[in-house]
Amino acid sequence: MTPKTCILVGAPVQSGASQPGCIMGPDAFRTAGLAPTLEALGHTVVDHGNAAITHGPDVSHPNSSVHDLSETVAWATTLREAAFRACQSGDLPIFLGGDHSLSIGTVPGVSQHSEALGKEQFVLWLDAHPDIHTLDSTQSGNLHGTPVSYFTGQPGFEKVYPELSKAVPPQNVCMIGIRSVDPAERTFLSDLGVDVHDMRSIDEHGIRRPLKAFLERVEAANGALHVSLDVDFLDPEIAPAVGTTVPGGTTFREAHLVMEMLCDSGLVGSLDLVELNPFLDERGRTAKLMVDLCASLLGRQVLDRKTRSY
Question: Does 43 participate in catalysis according to the annotation?
Fold first, then answer.
């Protein structure tokens, strides 16, 4: 593949989750060799270090379950700006998490850049959970469960989360690997028309077909593609370092096939690597696997074979 300038942005966010440890995620990716791995594939890597927040805004919400709201909103504001700058300075921003609430900032920042280029934004959500709760519907109060609802422009975030410059149309979101959905989220997914492929669908039809169809839609629209990869997309047997383990996730080969197809497509413009909790890992095996998946996305192959765009 054509060499890229990869911009690493650390997002040590853990305010959106219930279990501490994701704050160590960005440095675990670095320790697992993300930068030298990508450089060995011919890419240039520029590490912007870890983003940081100052005092968060004084915001609140009537839902008493919601916790760490001000801190999460502060992260969203900081990461939106960092994501926009990273898109301007390189070919492929890679956001190192941190829990999935970081996407409250990264996706709007990437979308703002796409809007400036006149491109329609698409999002591939690789996750066990749809993360499409609103501030009203969440019962856990964990804000890593709200980013998709927010960046697709659903009501209820006004005057709490940062104002969106442009929402991502729900039909431009494709979710693969879903296997844990709350009742409220099930209703939202049905009403909004999000393209959802749960693990039963993957078991019945394979993982290639839905991804190929989605990539064809992105290519036909000449769209910009953001990929958000959650550790719990993977089966916990191969990726234990996540606080939200759900049995029955994707296998090693399924995950690598997804990354290889994304590489072949040439469409990926930005990437989240999220929910890595090194405190729960086994001798760094999850961090190393995530780095290997990123390498597959950026051109690592077992054999050099001719490929075509999807």
Answer: no
For 79, the enclosing helix (H) or strand (E) is helix 69-89
Catalytic residue among 68, 71, 185, 232: 232
Range 231-251 burial, b when 16+ CB lie within 10 A, else e: bbbbbbeebbbbbbbbebbbe
- Using CA atoms, how far apart are residues 32 and 173, in angstroms rounded to an integer? 30
**Catalytic residue flag (residue 292):** no
129 has catalytic annotation = yes
- Under-50 pLDDT residues of the chain: 308-310
Backbone torsion region of residue 222, taken as left when φ is above 0, otherwise alpha when ψ lies between -120 and 50, otherwise beta? left
Question: Exactly one of 230, 235, 254, 272 is catalytic; which is it?
Answer: 230
What's the pLDDT score for residue 212? 98
pLDDT at 306: 56
pLDDT tens for 83-131 read 999 999 999 999 999 999 999 999 999 999 999 999 999 999 999 999 9
Active site residue 195: no
3-state secondary structure of 196: strand
Asked whether 229 and 97 are in contact (CB, 8 A), the reply is: no
Q: Report the SS3 class of residue 130.
A: coil
Q: What is the pTM of this model?
A: 0.96
**Identity at 139, one-letter amino acid code:** Q
H or E stretch at 271: strand 268-274
The yes-or-no answer on residue 235 being catalytic is no
Paired tokens of 182: 């709350």
| pLDDT reported for residue 267 | 98
Domain limits, the chain: 5-297
Q: Is 48 annotated in the active site?
A: no
Catalytic-residue membership of 67: no
For residue 139, what pLDDT is reported?
96
Give the tokens for residue 22.
């994701």
CATH number of 5-297: 3.40.800.10
Annotated active-site residue 197? The verdict is no
